[in-house]
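Much of the work behind modern protein science is quiet bookkeeping, done one molecule at a time. The protein below has been through that process, and both of its lines are reproduced in full.


***
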Amino acid sequence: MNYSFLRAIKFAFQDFWRNIWLSLVTISVLVLALLSVNVLVSLDAISGAVINSVENKVDISLYFKTTAPKAKVDNFRQKINALPEVKETFFIGKDEALTTFKEKHKDDAKIMEAVSQLEKNPLMDAFIIRAKSLDDYNRILSVISLNENQDLIKYQNFTDHQKIIDRIRIISNKVEQVSLFLTIIFAVISILIVFNSIRLTIYTHREEIAVMKLVGANNWFVRLPFLLEGIIYALFALSIAMVIIYALFYAVGGYLAEFLEAYNFSLLSYYNQNIWLILGGEFSAVALLNIISSAVAVGKYLRV
């Protein structure tokens, strides 16, 4: 059995090199299909990172009146912290805020001079609230908007990032749809080319196949070299596609990193961390398509 398998591998490589130009065309189309798939993978990873980053930046900032009693402010903070929708909160006292402001602008002489002229701290105590999800902010805002709580608050700041996130998702979905459409087209073309490539190879060996069948060779013994040839196509195509992808990463890596830096995301790191999952999934899909195409193509010549 092992000897038969080795012979099948030998025959598969022989047919691959004998029809090298047809093999190159087949691999080229498979590479285009794989590149389209990786565009989808990259877009999904980038859009996910951008959305997560935007969601993490969403918060409610409250600034308390300087006349608000400390006991009532503390009671309000405890009430907010007790809400199940709240993920975390931060309290920044006005003295801490002033110290941070001075540290931030210590090299600006004009600002520091203006601050030194102040008789008292003009800043207010701040309370920052972050929810577990975007949908939870409406519930938190409804509690904040109660009259008893509004009496403590000088002003509040909340930017609804849901519209931004929805826009990102719409753009991402449209680009993904185009990429998916191209992937399907290349996949169909790949199937047809692999089918015809294997069929042409089989046609040149039709008499050998007929002889093998007549002397008792089973279907798998005849079919195996052609199935392996489909896997060889997949291996070469995936290797070339990965080389192109990583070359593109290094070619435009600086621009891409600069764009994604604000979102604390690196596409190259994402690929490095998930490389085996990506390679395994893409190779399995391409190899399966090639095996099915090869199996259908060789089926006609197994009926002797």
